[in-house]
Design a protein that fits this description.
single chain, 253 residues, alpha/beta, Rossmann fold, seven-stranded parallel sheet, 15% strand
């Protein structure tokens, strides 16, 4: 097999949570270009249907809230009934609420951590346990630059992302003996739809120019190559690692 052939996802089935837009959508698009059948998830059925249609005939969608355990389990069961497997799981979904800790109620903290961390733990368990039978699989987690850094006024999101980074390492050890790799991607500043108001703000543009060695925000499509690498046979001996995709932001003093 040639080096380029090792990047093929032909015949693979990939589940990308939060794949309707932003980084998840671009990861799904990259996987499809590499030959995979991709299922994207989200809570808004009509918008998911539109995104799936835009991705083409090798895309499907499953509308459910990842924090809804019965709905999550039903969706996974349905995917296995139709495809018989999930080869690649990309845990991309996440919610963010930029507030200081004192502004949160206990209930709000629990809701955010359930969406951003606890539901991902459960989903990863359910899929990885099924992957064991095949003796192969790829678990990929979208963490963040805030998996190692923090900033005032944005408290809970870094906690969840640091938890995902730990989960990635734990599952690398737990499931590695079964042929399943677990890795993470830590994006920096990306100009997604969600961040459009920030990416167009003159102050934030100036911040990126001064703080990011490449001098700009990342383009959403620039995440796809990292995800494809980790999902493919080219990364068959990469396990428990976090690939930072941030234009050099994290290494700049």
């Amino acid at each position: 097999m040639s080096v380029l052939d090792r990047f093929s996802l032909q015949g693979r089935v990939a589940l990308v949570t939060g794949g309707r837009k932003g980084l998840g959508y671009e990861i799904a698009r990259g996987f499809i270009d590499a030959g995979a059948q991709v299922i994207i998830t989200g809570r808004d059925g009509p918008k998911l249907a539109a995104a799936s249609k835009a991705l083409g005939p090798f895309a499907e969608y499953a509308a459910f809230d990842i924090a809804d355990a019965p709905a999550r389990r039903a969706a996974i069961k349905d995917i296995y009934s139709r495809h018989g497997k999930i080869d690649i799981l990309v845990n991309n979904v996440g919610a963010r609420d930029r507030r200081s800790l004192g502004e949160f109620t206990d209930e709000e903290i629990a809701t955010l951590l359930n969406t951003d961390l606890l539901a991902t733990i459960s989903l990863s368990r359910d899929v990885a346990e099924r992957m064991k039978a095949a003796g192969d699989g790829r678990l990929i987690f979208l963490t963040s630059l805030l998996g190692t850094l923090a900033m005032p006024g944005d408290t809970i999101y870094p906690v969840a992302k640091q938890g995902l980074a730990g989960l990635c390492r734990a599952l690398a050890v737990e499931y590695g003996p079964h042929g399943i790799t677990s890795n993470a991607i830590a994006p920096g500043m990306f100009a997604t739809e969600t961040n459009a108001h920030l990416a167009s703000d003159p102050n934030m543009l100036a911040f990126a120019a001064g703080r990011v060695p490449l001098g700009r925000w990342g383009r959403p499509e620039e995440i796809a190559g990292a995800a494809l690498f980790l999902a493919s046979d080219a990364a068959s001996f990469v396990n428990g690692q976090t690939l930072t995709v941030d234009g050099g932001h994290s290494v700049r003093m």
